[in-house]
Amino acid sequence: MKVVLTCDVKGAGKKGSVVEVAEGYARNYLIPRGFAREASAGVLKALEHEREAASTRVERLRDEAKRTAERVTQVIVRIPAKAGEGGRLFGSVTSQDIADALWKQHRIKIDKKRIGLEENIKTLGLHFVPCKLYEGVAAEVRVNVVEERTGESI
């Protein structure tokens, strides 16, 4: 009996695949538990429509990520931080700080988990931070950490 799997089933196949299984296995186990649906013409047509919609969505997200990558490479993010002797920061600049600064300064929204900061930035100066925006789409954010100016006393 041909069925369309609605989730991954060990030994049968992956979600969305059309597989041939024993009729008893399908009628007594897969279908009652919601793991599969009988592969009728309507179900197969709906499955094909879902695949087309998913590929369109993936293509749209990839294009959006490419546009974001182009914008990111053209800007420099300026982050003020308190520093001591020799340009060492009192704290550190995290991926969340970079994501917030990108949004505030340039209206570019990137999730902090997409920013590939191996270690927090602990020195003043220009740093190049990689970002993985989507599968196969990466960019490099230029982060300029500058010394925060406090009120000068007389």
Architecture overview:
The protein is α+β, with helices and mostly antiparallel strands and 154 residues long. The protein folds into two domains: 2-65, Ribosomal Protein L9, domain 1, CATH 3.40.5.10; 76-147, Roll (Ribosomal Protein L9, domain 2). The chain has helices at 23-30, 41-73, 95-106, and strands spanning 2-5, 18-20, 36-38, 76-81, 88-93, 121-123, 125-134, 137-147. A hairpin with a 2-residue loop joins strand 7 and strand 8 (137-147). The longest helix is centred in the middle third of the chain and has 33 residues, at 41-73.
**What is the average per-residue confidence, as pLDDT, rounded to a whole number?**
92
Question: What proportion of the residues is helical, as a percent range?
Answer: 25-40%
For the largest sheet, list the strands in their spatial order: 2-1-3
Structural class: alpha+beta
| Low-pLDDT residue intervals, each spanning 5 or more residues | none
Helix and strand sequence: EEHEHEEHEEE
Rg to the nearest angstrom?
25 Å
Oligomer: single chain
**CATH class division of the largest domain:** Alpha Beta
**Biggest sheet record:** 3 strands, antiparallel
Q: What is the CATH homologous superfamily assignment of the largest domain? A: Ribosomal protein L9, C-terminal domain
Reported CATH architecture of the largest domain:
Roll
